[in-house]
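call fold(seq) -> tokens
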Amino acid sequence: MLSVVSSVHEAACVCVTCSPPRPRPVTWIPIIFRIPGFIAYYWVDAGNGVMVSTSLFETNAGAEESNRQVKLWRLNTPAASAALPTPPTVTAGQVVGSRSRKHA
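ret:
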């Protein structure tokens, strides 16, 4: 069964070269990409300094490992703590319904 992890981040530091300016998750994407069962990752600008990340894994174990790895990354990466000064609010669980459409 598929599992999902959603995290809400309040961002203090933004990528000023992005349009619109926003935090960049590029340094932790390779970390979760290597976790067995990884399917997809989304980083959403919810406005007002709030960013939402959502990761999709084949198993709950993959979702839990993602939480553990990103937490370690945040603790051990000074730039991460500056960009994301407060720990995210994390919600995880099994996917109980879905529907998707292939994008061109």
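The chain has one domain: 3-92.
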